[in-house]
Amino acid sequence: MRFDYHTRYRQGFALLRHPSDWLAYGLLAVVLLALPFFASTYLIGELGYVLILCIAAMGLMALTGFTGQVSLGHASFVAIGAYAHAWLLAQGVPFVLALPLAGVISAEAGLVVGIPAIRVSGLYLAMVTLAFSIVVEQVIGMWRGVTGGFMGMLVETPRIFGVSVGAPKYFYYVCLFVAVLVLLALANLMRSGIGRAFTGVRDSEAAAYALGIEVKRVKVGAFGLSAGITGLAGALMAHHIGYLTPDAFTLLLSLDLVLMVVIGGMGSLRGAILGAVLISFLPKGVALLKSALPDAMARQSGLEIFVAGLVLALFVLFEPMGLNGRWLKLRALFESFPLYRRDTFRRQKTYMKSERSR
Amino acid sequence: MTGPLLELDKVALHFGGLAAISDLSISVNAGEVLAVIGPNGAGKTSMLNLVTRVFEATKGRILFKGQDIARAPRSKIAHLGIARTFQNIELFDAASVLDNLLLGRHRFGAGAWWQQVLRTPGLTRREEDHRAKVETVIEFLDLSAWRNAQVASLPYGVRKVVELGRALCSEPEILFLDEPASGLNPEETRDLAFWIDDIRSDLGITVVMIEHDMSLVSAVADRVVCMAQGRVLAQGTSAEVQAHPDVISAYLGT
Questions:
Q1: Rounded to an integer, what distance in angstroms lies between the CA atom of residue A31 and that of residue A25?
Q2: Which of B84, B117, B131 lies nearest to residue A185, judging by beta carbons?
């Protein structure tokens, strides 16, 4: 067991509270930084893609996990970020400027989509975002002058101050840098006033109003923030794909993002990252599995989707708190090793349920 | 200050043809504990919802420190120094007690967004100041055992206290309690009576409480207003109101 002995409040809300945290995250950082020297080019390319998905999942987590607004259209923000970035590069805007600008453009689109969120929530909001993503897909297809239409458009090689970072090895570092930046920014935001306002709006709008939180602004702002971060992911994704077509950003990508957030565990950035890692490695795991399966099963189409669905179903049944919940339990197990009780995390009905509580 | 702290002046609230509140005038003096009683459907909570701008008053004025707030935006009410609790607890269930109380500090600001993103030293100091204020409330309400607990895992009685604490964290001038004793056991109700007394005399906060528990009302309230069918039926001390013939007939029927 570990007992904190804090002498200042700031120790209580530090990001890394214990020396062991510093050690663990330091080790992780060293491994991530050293990977390109050991891993194959293919693996590094894939890892860069995983990092991009981590960024997008963190963006969706800010909206769905922290503010409680469902979005089935986040692929469209990935698309907007990607196309905006590629277009800006084609106009001669340097990479380091085009990347944040793509995020800003995507955030603006997010603010527009966020306006209906003031009035609708839950399933209806999901439908609005779904409709938006279909509209975006069509607009991209039709707007030939900017997006190249259904024929697609080529993305220029990323250059930072004249040096090409297009090779997977270097681009991996770019993705890592952006991912860490987004993670730190969101972690700081979520433990400050804005993050608290987000959770306030998620859990009780009536109370949020009564405390002086401008609920509508928070809702729209959360959409903007989320879309902006997802747009950043899109901009990086443009380079990963290399050639943009509208069918790269379909509903399946949106659903994958939702899956990452749900399986990762609502309301936790760690969950978003763990979920993104799991979901993006799932198809590769299935590919490995195929070689071990009998031929008749391995050649069935839709095996990947089946496994993804199975994983989701298992999580909903056995671990509603997602990967993050599992992580917290494992950590509690190790910290209190011989004394860990299986019921530690079991929710008890300690009170008569009032009509509102579930 | 001259005049009452809060004054409802001939307020009416209609839902279509239904008059939930008609021609209601109530004034609350600074530094008193006012209890509002009345049978179900009398319009007590509607009155509170009018003041906190959940509902739009059909007619009349609501004066807080002489300023008409009957048309003020809903999220501005807390910034004026009006806090409330809810009849069916409205806490942020997935957050810790500490975060719930910190949200009570929302009206004092949490720094610009870029300061929050960068977590500047100034912001850390500000967060520490908020935390220190929250700790005084935790001490006042004896919540230290629950400080880091998730609200969803708390017993009902503790949730009620957390909600009261969250309202106190916003350092209001006037505090509305909507049935604070409902669902509490006698011991918790006694604690609550002491707290309400302390909130008034130590913290100097005016308290308006809607309550059915007459033992609590007579223990802490300076003045009692009885409402029925959207109007004031009687007001005065607890004993006067309880003895009023109209009040008795409103509760028992004629």
A1: 10
A2: B117
pTM, two decimal places: 0.90
Residue A160 bridge partners (DSSP):
A163
Cβ-Cβ contacts under 8 Å between A and B: the total is: 128
Query: Which chain A residues have a beta carbon less than 8 Å from that of B156?
Result: 350-352, 354
CA distance linking residue A156 with residue A341, whole number of Å: 56
- With a cut of 50, say whether residue A352 has pLDDT above it: no
CB–CB of B56/B12 below 8 Å? no
Domains in chain B, start-ordered, CATH in brackets? Answer: 6-81+172-252 (3.40.50.300)
Burial class (CB in 10 A: 0-12, 13-18, 19+), B66: exposed
Cα A94 to Cα A163: distance, rounded to the nearest angstrom = 11
Domains identified in chain A, total number: 1
Residue pLDDT, tens place only, A281-313 = 888 888 888 888 887 777 777 777 788 788 888
Query: Residue A345: closest CA among chain B residues belongs to which residue?
Result: B153
Q: Is A196 close to B152, i.e. CB distance below 8 A?
A: no
With contacts defined as CB-CB under 8 Å, which chain B residues touch A350?
Answer: 153-156
Distance CA A153, CA A90 (A): 10
Q: Is the pLDDT of residue B92 over 80?
A: yes
Of chain B, the percentage scoring pLDDT greater than 90 comes to 74
Please choose, from the candidates B110, B147, B89, the residue with its C-alpha nearest in 3D space to the C-alpha of residue A352.
Answer: B89
| Chain A residues within 8 A of B79 when measuring between CB atoms | 212
Assembly ipTM: 0.91
What does the buried/exposed string (b/e) look like for B111-125 if buried means 16 or more CB atoms within 10 Å of the residue's CB? beeebbbebeeebbe
pLDDT above 90 as % of chain A: 56
pLDDT at residue B35, as a whole number: 95
Chain A residues within 8 A of B104 when measuring between CB atoms = 211
Quote the minimal CA–CA distance from B54 to chain A in Å.
Answer: 8
Residue A304 in any domain: the answer is no
Cα A98 to its chain centre, rounded Å, is 21
Residue A55 in contact with residue A232, Cβ under 8 Å?
yes
Cα–Cα distance measured from residue B62 to residue B45, given in angstroms and rounded to the nearest whole number = 15
Is the CB of A189 inside 8 Å of chain B's CB atoms?
A: yes
* C-alpha to C-alpha distance for A352 and B155, rounded to whole angstroms: 8
Residue A206 in contact with partner chain B when CB distance is under 8 A: yes
Which residue range is the domain that position A189 belongs to? Answer: 17-249
